[in-house]
Amino acid sequence: MRRVTRNLLIAIALVVVALLALGALPSYLGTGDPYYLTVESIETDDTAVDVNEVSERRYPYLMGALTSDDGRSDGYQMGPFGMKEWFTHTPFDEVDSLTTSVAEAETDDGVRVEYDGQKYHVQIVQP
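The structure corresponding to this sequence follows.
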């Protein structure tokens, strides 16, 4: 094998390892108190986002909160210097996505959603 080819293969392998590390590393970064996505049942005739057909893979925090007993998702800890948010999915992304899809469902501190015929107020809290 030529020296140039060997060096190119080594460089490609290093890039692949670095990209894999960047994909796995953010899940280990986390500082401070966790943020939770919470849902609270509400009675309203206002517009709400229909989330009956959303994927749990796209909205893991929302679906976790809707299907949990206490109405709270798994915790999310921010990374140092805001670096974790560049590489991971956050509950902030989910709320932004919901408010973008139906702007009328946005509230002062969250968004209204409809799931299984019941309306909920979704917000991000940090205890």
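Residues 7 and 15 are 12 Å apart (CA to CA).
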